[in-house]
Amino acid sequence: MIFHTKQFKLAAVAAALLAAGAAQASTGMTDNLVHSPKALEPLTGNTSAVSNWRFTAGQSFNGVAGALDGVARLSFSNSGGNWACSGSLLAGGQYVLTAAHCADDFTKMTVQFGWQGGAAAVTRNVSVGNAYVNKAWTGQLDTGADIAILKLDTVVTGINGYHLSTTNDVGKDYLMAGYGTTQKATNDLATNWNDGGYGHYGFNTFDVDSKSFNKAAGDAGVYDYNPNYYAPGTTYMSDFDDGTDMHNTLGRLAHETGDKWTSSTGRGGSEALIAGGDSGGGDFVWNGKEWLLSGVHSWGWQGSDACPDFGLTGCDNSSNNHSSFGDLSGSTATFSHIAWINSVTAPVPEPETYAMMIAGLALVGVARRRKQA
Ligand SMILES: [Ca+2]
Ligand SMILES: [Ca+2]
Ligand SMILES: [Ca+2]
């Protein structure tokens, strides 16, 4: 996997984005990723200890017991080493939704649920032939194609999978979850695997979609904007707020580009941002009854990299911490890909097949009548 350190120069936006996930195991690690989480490089940061942001099996969110039990921990290997990502179990228990950059290059993949205290409750495998990477994925982030489906070798029972959001959720608050690295948002230090025995959660708001963001930046003369670049799907953008105007990065960037969207100073102490290893994990919106899977973690962008392009400084409270206050994240929207996801997870027979099935039924009917006659 090449995405963990490589800075992407996007032709369309000329912006340096860093994939949030697929954090790599330390050099020399072979197959013991599961047993040595601390040796790996990972999600959420905040002003209190990261252990406060663990989620545990059966934990309730908005009164839904086990709301995050369907969050998957992905461990995979390829010629580049061992890697960690996250994902979400889809309703039915057979498939996991993750990022394309977590599923486009592996030789061996393990998917686990209920990971806490460094042990999993449920473990499944995925064969290479059972990874369905979105056809529009070219390796470039932010096009809206960073999404993939994994078919598990055995269906998962006893854990509720997620239903998909089918609407554009820009403006909504969401609950994020993943098994990636962590760090306090106020520390000027890289995220790490020190709390890698647990998954973590936090909250944020989808402020704007990348196409609208880059259109506004294009109109302002900051980037070259090409609408075709965003054709594959929508990507939701969020900023990591601490309540100050200074670190309200998307609010500041909106103001610089004609106020085409709004971004508040945040949700207070519950706000968080994804980090390495959270790639592929889910963003969940509340519909009044259940948590719907709305976004798939794709990339992170440091405030210290984004703001200077717009002539701004001071957005980012730590350039060593890629998930600090003032940093940005992007997630691929599920609503853009409903038809494709359904085509993989619940394929409908071709019309000709239908015709044959009907013919077959008719023949059976005829045969039965004859037998009865
Ligand atoms: Ca925010
Ligand atoms: Ca904000
Ligand atoms: Ca930062």
Notes on the structure:
By secondary structure, this protein is of the alpha+beta class. The chain is 14% helix and 24% strand. The chain has five helices and 18 strands. The strands form two sheets. Strands 1, 2, 4, 12, 13, 14, 15, 16, 17 and 18 form a ten-stranded antiparallel sheet that branches. Strands 3, 5, 6, 7, 8, 9, 10 and 11 form an eight-stranded antiparallel sheet that branches. The longest helix has 22 residues, at 351-372. Residues 1-22 and 24-44 have low confidence and may be disordered. The structure holds calcium ion (3 copies).
Question: What secondary-structure arrangement, pairings included, does this model have?
Answer:
Blueprint lengths: L7 E2 L6 E4 L3 E2 L29 E2 L15 E8 L2 E9 L5 E4 L9 E6 L8 E5 L4 E3 L14 E4 L21 E6 L20 E7 L2 E2 H10 L15 E5 L9 H8 L25 E5 L4 E11 L1 H4 L21 E6 L4 H8 L5 H22 L1
Antiparallel strand pairs: 1-2, 2-17, 3-6, 4-13, 5-6, 5-8, 6-7, 7-11, 8-9, 10-11, 12-13, 12-16, 14-15, 15-18, 16-17, 17-18
What are the main properties of this structure?
373 residues, alpha+beta, Thrombin, subunit H, 8-stranded antiparallel sheet, 5 helices, 18 strands, globular, disordered N terminus, binds calcium ion
> What would the average pLDDT be, to the nearest integer?
86
Total of DSSP H or I helical runs spanning 4+ residues: 5
Shape, principal axes of CA atoms = globular
Q: What Rg, in angstroms, do the CA atoms define? A: 21 Å
